[in-house]
Amino acid sequence: MRFPPANMQLRRAQLVLMLAVLVPTVLMTGVGIVLLAIGSTATTVISGVLVLTFCTSGITGYILGTIFVGKGASLVRVQNDFVSSVTHELRTPITSIRLLIESLNHDRLEREDRTQVLSLLGRETERLEVLVGRVLELSRLQLSYDYRRDPIDAVELLDESIAAFDALTLTRPTPIKRYCDPGLIITGDRPMLVRALVNLLTNAWKYTGDDKQISIEAHAAGRWVDLFVRDNGLGIDRGEQRLIFEQFKRGRAAHDGAAPGLGLGLSFVRAIVIGHRGKLDLESSNGTTAFRIRLKRTRQVTAPQPIRLGQTSS
To answer: Rounded to whole angstroms, what are the CA distances from 263 to 134, 207, 283?
Structure first.
C-alpha cells in the first residue's frame, strides 16, 4: 500500500482542521453575538458569553494547530531538500567508484593503468568517507551536541582562532588583522566557537585574490558581543546570502572559481551559533564581505576583597 507524500498529508490535515474547526467556530461566533445582542434575560446573556468563550478557545486551538502543521510542513521540506542534496553529492563519488571497479573487473588494464585506477579508487573512497563523516557530524551538532558554557575571553578566542587558521594555511601564510574591545567575556564552548571562526577565516582566504585583506574583530554591542570576519573578496549576491547557509549550497563565486569545498562550512557555523543561542548574518557588496556572529555578553563579576583586621568596609 502506497501512502501520499508527507507534505501532501500535512496539507490535507490543514484543510481538515480548517473545515472541522474554523468554519463551525465562525458560525457559532455569529450565534453568540446574536444572543448577546437580543438577550433580554440573564440566561440568554450567559448563553451568549459561553458560546463566545467556546469560540475563542476553538479559534485559539485552530491557530496553534495551524502553527504546528506549518512547522511540520517546513520540517518536511527541509528534510526533502537535505535528502535531495545528499543524494546529489553522493552520486558523483559512487558513480566514479562503480566505473573504476568495472574497469578492474574486465582485467584488460596494463600494470601502470591498474595502479592508477587503484589510486583513483582510493581517492574517491576517501572523498565519500569524508562526505559521510561531515554530514553525520553536522547532524549531531544540530540535534544532540551538548555545548559547554564556559567563560571565554574574547581576545584569547580571537588569538586561538588565528593560530588554528595559520596552521591550516602554512603553504600560503596570510596575516590576519585583529581588533578587540577590552574586557569582553563570552559564555560558550571554546573549541566550537574557534571552529566556527576558523571556517569563516578559511572561506575568506579561499574567496579573495592575491591581495588578501582579512580581519577578525570583537566589539561590544550592549548585552551582546559581535564577532566579525571581514575580507576583500568578490562579495556575495544578495539573492544568495541566505542560500549559502544551507547544506551543500555554494555561491556563484565558489562555482566560477572552482574553489574546493562541499558547501558545508557555513552550515557548521550556523549550527554552532544556533547552539549558543546566538545570531549569524552577513553584509556583502562588491569588494567586501563581513560575517557577524552575535553572542550573549557575560558581565565580569569582581570578587569581594577580604577585610583585614582593623579595616572597615566602605
So the answer is: 11, 13, 19
306/314 Cα distance (integer angstroms): 12
Rounded to 5 degrees, φ, ψ at 39 are -65, 125
Distance CA 136, CA 138 (A): 5
Say how many C-beta atoms besides its own lie within 10 A of residue 225's C-beta: 26
For residues 308 and 282, the model is more confident at 282
| 8-state DSSP, 297 | B
189 grid coordinates = 564552548
**What is the crossing angle of helices 42-106 and 111-143, to 10°?**
160
Using CA atoms, how far apart are residues 94 and 90, in angstroms rounded to an integer? 6
Closest to 282 measured CA to CA, from 204, 210, 220: 204
What is the gyration radius of the CA atoms in the chain, in angstroms?
29
| CATH architecture entry for 150-296 | 2-Layer Sandwich (3.30)
The continuous run of DSSP H or E covering 114 comes out as helix 111-143
Q: How far apart (Å, rounded) are the C-alpha atoms in residues 314 and 312?
A: 6
Cell of 196: 566556527
Is residue 297 within 8 Å of residue 186, measured between CB atoms? yes
- Total-model pTM: 0.62
Which residues in the chain belong to E strands, given as ranges? 150-153, 176-180, 185-188, 214-221, 224-231, 279-285, 288-296
First to last CA, the chain: 81
pLDDT at 179 over 90: yes
What lies within 8 Å, CB to CB, of 182 at 6+ separation is none
Q: How many CB atoms lie within 10 A of CB 297?
A: 19
Cα distance between residue 76 and residue 7, in whole Å: 6
What is the arithmetic mean of pLDDT over 282-305?
Answer: 76
C-alpha cell at 99: 566505473
Residue 101's SS3 state is helix
DSSP state of 33: H
What amino acid is encoded at 149 in this protein?
Answer: R
